[in-house]
Amino acid sequence: MRVAIKFAYDGTYFHGYQRQPDVRTVEGELLKALISLGAMDSTEDSLFRSSSRTDSGVSAIGNVLALNTEFRLEELPQALNSKVRDIWVWGYAAVSEEFNPRHAVRRWYRYYFPPRVSPESLRKASRPFIGQHDFTSFAYRDEKSPVRRIDKIEVSGNRSFTTLDIWGESFLRGMVRKVAWVMEHVASGQLTLADVERALQGEGRDFGIAPAEPTVLMDVEYGFDFVVQEREREFFLRLDNRMWKARLSLEVLSLILDRSRGQGIRGAG
């Protein structure tokens, strides 16, 4: 049986997502837990795949992995949560044998700015990014296929944060953080919309990159529902106040609960 698992994590406690020798990573911790539970023997035999390999410091509410397993499906989230720290498994779905979580319908990222950053200025700065462009200047390194499409950008603000939400099928490595950095600098007048437009037309620019910690992978969508058990919702309610060193703890807890109850996700008792 092939299974997709949806999970959250606090990226400040890990050296990134992808497994690496001798350092703690999200993927590494999940693999150790799955093997310890007997849910898999090896990544090759189980066809273990991950959706998004977030950078060190980046957190997630709705990342997704998939594997072949004979473990009892409805018991897997609770079993994994008993084995891992700073990772919270909150959804699951039975999927087809061909399912690869890399092939998503859409990904949703959020970036948190301090409240001094004007939402209206950021909205104006976001306009050139909508649509399909060459994002070479908005990636860590040269990419063979740098063309990506941003479907939608929304900006909102309150007394605590100004938030940037950005949706697209896929993103280059570092792309969301570089877009956030450029938008903030356009909003402050240090860059112009013309600078952005030239870069999106392929004119190479060495832009800076925003800090990782305020970045959250909110969700990865596939067009099917994930099941969330009520006892796992209760698990989230018992989370302590460490998430993002307490600065965004209540915000991220609210996001996890909202996503577990949200559109396209159904609960199970």
Structural account:
There is one protein chain. By secondary structure, the protein is an alpha+beta fold. The protein folds into 2 domains: 149 residues, Alpha-Beta Plaits (2-Layer Sandwich); 95 residues, Pseudouridine synthase I, catalytic domain, C-terminal subdomain (Alpha-Beta Plaits, 2-Layer Sandwich). The strands form 2 sheets. Strands 1, 2, 3, 4, 5, 6, 7, 8 and 9 form a 9-stranded mixed sheet that branches. A hairpin with an 8-residue loop joins strand 2 and strand 3. Helix 4 packs across helix 5. The two termini are 22 Å apart. The relative contact order is 0.18.
What layout of secondary structure does this protein have?
Layout: E1 2-9, H1 26-37, H2 43-46, E2 49-50, E3 59-68, H3 76-81, E4 87-95, E5 106-113, H4 119-126, E6 131-134, E7 147-157, E8 162-168, H5 175-187, H6 193-200, E9 215-221, E10 226-229, H7 230-237, H8 249-261, E11 265-268
Parallel strand pairs: 3-9, 10-11
Antiparallel strand pairs: 1-3, 1-4, 2-3, 5-8, 5-9, 6-7, 7-8
Helix pairs in contact: 4-5
